[in-house]
Amino acid sequence: MRAFRLPTELWTLAALLALWEAVVVVFRVPEILVPSVRVVFDEIASNPDFYLVQSMHTLSNTLAAFVLSVVFGVGMAIAIVSSRFLEKTLYTVLVALNNVPKVALAPLFVIWLGTGNASKIAMGVMISIFAIVIDAVLGLRSLTPDMIDLGRSMRGSGLKMLLKLRLPNALPSIIAGMKVAMSLSLVGAIVGEFVAAQNGLGFVILSAQGMFRTDRVFAAILLLAAIGTTLYYLMEVLERALIPWHESQRHGTARAPAAVVPKA
Question: Which positions, given as ranges, span the membrane (predicted)?
C-alpha cells in the first residue's frame, strides 16, 4: 500500500508558519507589532462567521473582476490582432491606462459607480485586464506562417482560422495571462475596499488598523494569502486540464507568464 505524502507546497507553508512563530517567541516581539501564529489563529477561530462573510465578499468581487477581465481582455486581443487600426488606437490606450497608478483611479470609480461592489469589480478589471490582453495578443500572433498557409489552402474563413488555429495556439499564452490576472483581480478588489467599503477583507484591515488590532490585520492578511494561493493553484489545475499537450505540462514545469504586471 502506497504511503500518503503531503504535497511539498503544504510542507513549505507549514515551515513558514513555524518560522514565524519561532521568531516571535524567541525574540519576544511585542504583539502589537507582530502577533504570533497562535494569536492570529485564535482570532480567526473566535470569529469564524465574521471572517467567512468578509472572505466570501472579497472572493466574489475577485472572481467577478477576473471573469470580466478574461472576457473583455480576450475580445480586445482578437480585435487588436484583426485590425491594424485598433492596434494603433485601442492598444495605445490600454498601454497608457496601464501606466496610470490604479490607486489614483479608485476614488473616481467610487464617484462613478458608488461604494458598492461595482467599484471594487471595476478596479479589479482595470488592474488585471492588461495581463490578459498582452498575453492573448502574443499567443494569437504566434501562429506560424506554415499553419496560416495550411488554413488558407483548406479555404478556411477568418472565423474558422480564429477558432480552429489561432485560439488553440494562443491557449497556453492566454492561460498564463489568466494566472497573473487572477492574482491582480484580488489586488484590485482589495484596493477598492481600501478606498470605500463597509465589508470585505480590505475593509477589515483598514478598520483594524485604526483600532491598532494587529491580530485582526494579520488574520485578514493570512486569509487573503490563503485565497490567493488557492485561486492560483486552481488555475494550474485548469491549465493541466485544458492544455495537457503543451510542453510545460509534459516536462512538469509551469510556463512563465509573459505579461507585463500592471502598476497598482
Answer: 63-81, 93-115, 121-140, 184-205, 217-235
Q: Is 261 helix (H, G, I), strand (E, B) or coil?
A: coil
Residues 6 or more apart whose CB falls under 8 angstroms from that of 68 comprise 121, 125
Specify the DSSP class assigned to residue 47.
S
Radius of gyration of the chain (CA): 22
CA distance 25 to 264: 35
Please name which of 228, 252, 226, 229 lies closest in space to residue 240, comparing C-alpha atoms. Answer: 252
- Could you list the pLDDT tens digit for every one of the 264 residues in the chain? 455 565 777 888 889 999 999 999 999 999 899 999 999 999 999 999 999 999 999 999 999 999 999 999 999 999 999 888 988 898 888 888 888 888 888 889 999 998 889 999 999 999 999 999 999 999 988 877 776 666 666 766 667 777 778 888 889 999 999 999 999 999 999 999 998 888 999 999 999 998 899 999 999 999 999 999 999 999 999 988 888 877 766 655 444 444 444 555
The superfamily CATH assigns to domain 35-250 is: MetI-like (1.10.3720.10)
How far from 230 is each of 123, 139, 214, 233, CA to CA, in Å? 21, 26, 24, 5
Per DSSP (E only), the strands in the chain are none
Residue ranges per structural domain of the chain: 35-250
Q: Which residue has the cell 479555404?
A: 155
* Residue 99 DSSP symbol: T
Spatial distance between the Cα atoms of 124 and 68, rounded to a whole number of angstroms: 9
Helices 201-210/214-242 angle, 10° precision: 160
Q: How far are the Cα atoms of 97, 182, 262 from residue 101, in angstroms, in the given order? A: 8, 19, 9
